[in-house]
Amino acid sequence: MNETSSPTQANMSFVVLISLIATIGGFLFGYDSGVINGTVDGLQKAFNSDSMGTGFSVSSMLLGCAVGAFFAGQWADKYGRWWVLMVSSILFIISAWGSGIATGSVEFIIYRVIGGLAVGAASIICPAYISEVAPAQYRGKLSSIQQIAIISGLFFSFLSNYQLAETAGGSTSILWWGYETWRWMFWMELIPAGIFFLALFLIPESPRFLVANGKNDKAKVVLTKLYGDKADDKVKDIYNTLAHDHKPSFRDLVNKSTGKIRPIVWIGFGLAVLQQFVGINVVFYYGSVLWQAAGFSESDALFTNVISGAVSIGACLVTFFLVDKIGRKPLLWFGSIGMTITLALVAYAFSGAPTDEAGKLQLSPTDGMLALIAANVYVVFFNMSWGPVVWIMLGEMFPNQMRGSALAIAGLAQWGANFLITWTFPMLLASAIGLAGAYSIYTFFSLFSVFFVMWYIKETKGKELEQMEG
Question: Is residue 43 part of a domain?
């Protein structure tokens, strides 16, 4: 099947439908990641934790994410993409309920780790699934919906947190039925998690998984729905890219002739780590804490998160319209430059601000406005480049034979880096370097990403998955 072949309008409706259902996993990824943002004060009060303990409670989910992402890649190759998505939907439900009923730090961490398993699995399998069902000329656009879904999940978690806190008078106040507001913030996730579970019964298994497991007839049925009369050719194309002496495994990541890990695996590793080392999730996970440290009230800080979420969705829409026109590499490079400049401005705004007796920064009106604008512009640059494009590329850049295994490594690296950044931020905030030092570190990695894109990233726009090289 060549690059010019495309499904009919009826087939495209089916492709779009199943892609949208898969992206509900991305929505839950965003919601589960962002809901913690408004609950930090409640967790500190309920569990009487210090800055290190709070940092671990917030970041504990990310340990589950790392494990979930790593094993999801293997499980997806062994049991199927659909099966992994279904398990993740059940784990989302368990985590949302349990995080809200937790009565102690250990219990809370256990439920957050369960949620992390779901988020980690969804984070790599959702974009991979979309890449494996979408035609090449629309793959970037459809895969970018994943990031829109992630940011939408973040946005609605911020909006829900803000509305619940406003209704109750604060995140630690009693809301309904005698339960604190922060608990209801977690329970609101049960609604989209239930929808995801039910909607998954409407989508098929990935045809590339089916071919890899010798189920060519089933793959042809799915591909007929996706591509019409091109199904037979597509089955042959997929079959020809697979090794027939063994099923996909981790040994496919090693070049047999050199005995070294294939370069494409290291590039995926670099993309995954740098996406986190630029500090984006400090804004998402600790947004309210960050802005309160900068002198904003809790209510104003939560509302600022809502603004950031709305701006992020708009930025993702830019990528949606451009990624299949100008390509992945230009968007990454442009985003790296923009993030470097705006992160440097945020660090500068925080660098000269004095602190009060409570240790909170006292920003001048000018510096406060600079920090607020620069931080939101930084979020725009990230969400029109490294946010969606990294997920797009991780889902499509690896050859069929190694996709699951390579995604396992990239997912483990991505969430490991996420954990490191999230866990260390409260300690950096409480240390001598403070906000200015933390943002200077993120600026350095953003600058490094400029050169990483220039030297190592190859364009994947318009290529069939069967054309990807290892």
Answer: yes
